[in-house]
Amino acid sequence: MSLKAFHVVFITAASALAFGVGVWMLREYRLPGGDTNDLVFAISSTIVGAALLVYEGFFLCKLKNVSFL
Q1: Tens-place pLDDT, residues 23-44
Q2: Residue 52, Cβ neighbours under 10 Å: how many?
């Protein structure tokens, strides 16, 4: 596995984890004992997940001439 392929897999996994934490914290916020910090964490995790996807797009455009092998 090349460094480019590893990078794409790692950034995709990190983005999925960030979105998962965002959904989890949003569900925690909606519970009866939900705190405002849960909502802030949910929003920030979702923003980080989106930023990681944008970064991955720029990364793939920059290294489009480099093979995955």
Answers
A1: 999 999 999 999 999 999 999 9
A2: 20
Q: Are 50 and 16 in contact (CB under 8 A)?
A: no
List Cβ neighbours of 24 (8 Å cut-off, separation of 6 or more). Answer: 42
Q: List the domain boundaries for the chain.
A: 3-62
User: Please, are residues 15 and 49 in contact by the beta-carbon 8 Å criterion?
Assistant: yes
| Distance (Å, whole) CA 1 – CA 37 | 40
DSSP annotation string for 22-34: HHHHHHHHHSTT-
